[in-house]
Here is the input.
Amino acid sequence: EENMTGKKKRIFRAFRAAFPYTIPIFAGFWFVGLTYGIYMNVSGFSFWYPMLMSLTIFAGSIEFVVVNMLLGAFNPLQALVITLMINARHLFYGISMLDKYRNKGWKKGFLIFGMCDESFTINYTAKIPEDVDEGWFMFFVTLLNYLYWFSGATLGGIFGSLLKFNTEGLDFVMTAMFVVIFMEQWLKEKNHVSSLLGIGLSLLCLLAFGAENFMIPAMLAVIGVLTLLRKPIEKESVNDSYTTDHNHRNGGAWNYAHTFSALSALSGRKTNSEIHTVSWQGAACVCLWTFSHLLP
Here is the structure.
């Protein structure tokens, strides 16, 4: 009985330590989650769709993208490529968390499944008190953020049908989101070569293949060209890594506003190669999706 009491106190102590870190995420996730649920509703889907998708997919960017995939022609190859491109940054998140997730028992599976940008940032950078169990702390951070998104998306889907105001144009929210992400990343970059190449190659493929078929050729072109130019771009970005690392050490990792915010936490500890890879993948997919949704 004493052991059970001690365990409960340890778990509750971890919850109390984790909860304050997730309060900013709650505000952001609920707002975006409600918007996503309403967006699904006005697109003709029952609240079951955002509820189940947020429960099983748990990837905000992809969940917005899936709306158009469900409304468009069946194209599993395009869905696979787009999903890999948008979520490629999670490969580096996972590598960074290998040591932290080791020996976490049954919690490890959920920590891997529920690792989003915000949870990664908190779990990777938070200074956990010595009397708080690290495994339970990371579990509660991940669980709380998961519940914030799930509840927001579900409520948006439920109450979306009750809204009486004109929701025409709400589907532009995804285009706006990707434009904001791209602009935020542009402002953080010291070297814009990757972003400019992403824009240029996307435009060329758009002109060559048309709005209906340019997506996959553009992705392949971006991957190919930036892989060939990887070393020259890395050499120019060496000096920038010090500035990024300095910003990270002064609190830059706590910008929760956008999908790629956690990259600032990575930059201080990853090689230039890894930073470069994540950066151009993010810039490329943002450019691609912005172009594809700005077009009629």
Q: What stands out?
A: The CA atoms of residues 249 and 268 lie 8 Å apart.
